[in-house]
């Protein structure tokens, strides 16, 4: 059996295991430079994409309508019809529990090549943890740094409560 040693000088040496004398030494073939490949990939421009949460929020009213009209008897039936899991249908429907201002803000997000300001998961957690819409807005502003305008009706109602 022949052992092969690769040296940092970019050459291969075959060594007989019984004798520590090289059988043959030859240069390694030139390998593609990883840095060149990385530069090429970085130079490619990705087309702007709509944040996935926008698409999910746009599908949610349709899911609600299908269940309400009896097209699907429940979330599990709707999931079977769509080819999704029950959990995924529930996740999308959670987005409908967000404050209307947040829903309008998400629907207004533009296509981008950057990371979106918030993820779908963050918004679902927001809807579950903060049942009060005003608390949702405050938490979203804290999370993403985005300042949203509150509905005039909600502000008038809050002023009357105070």
Explain how this protein is built.
It is a single chain. The chain is built from eight helices and three strands, in the order βββαααααααα. The protein has helices at 34-43, 52-69, 75-82, 86-94, 100-107, 120-129, 133-144, 152-161, and strands at 3-7, 11-15, 22-27. The chain is mostly helical. The model has no long low-confidence stretch (mean pLDDT 80). The protein has a domain at 52-148: Arc Repressor Mutant, subunit A. 52% of the residues lie in helices and 10% in strands. The longest helix has 18 residues, at 52-69. It has a three-stranded antiparallel beta sheet with strand order 1-2-3, with no helix packed on it.
Summarize the structure.
With 162 residues, the protein is mainly alpha-helical. It has helices at residues 34-43, 52-69, 75-82, 86-94, 100-107, 120-129, 133-144, 152-161, and strands at 3-7, 11-15, 22-27.
């Amino acid at each position: 059996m022949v052992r092969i040693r690769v040296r940092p000088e970019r050459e291969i040496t075959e060594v007989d295991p019984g004798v520590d004398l090289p059988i043959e030494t030859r240069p390694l073939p030139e390998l593609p430079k990883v840095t060149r490949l990385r530069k090429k990939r970085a130079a490619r421009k990705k087309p702007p994409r709509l944040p996935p949460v926008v698409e999910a929020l746009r599908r949610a009213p349709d899911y609600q309508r299908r269940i309400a009209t009896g097209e699907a008897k429940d979330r599990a039936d709707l999931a079977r019809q769509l080819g999704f899991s029950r959990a995924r249908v529930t996740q999308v429907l959670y987005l409908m529990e967000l404050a209307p201002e947040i829903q309008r803000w998400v629907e207004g997000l533009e296509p981008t090549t950057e990371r979106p300001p918030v993820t779908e998961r963050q918004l679902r957690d927001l809807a579950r943890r903060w049942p009060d819409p005003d608390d949702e807005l405050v938490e979203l502003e804290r999370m993403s740094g985005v300042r949203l305008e509150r509905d005039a009706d909600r502000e008038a109602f809050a002023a009357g409560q105070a």
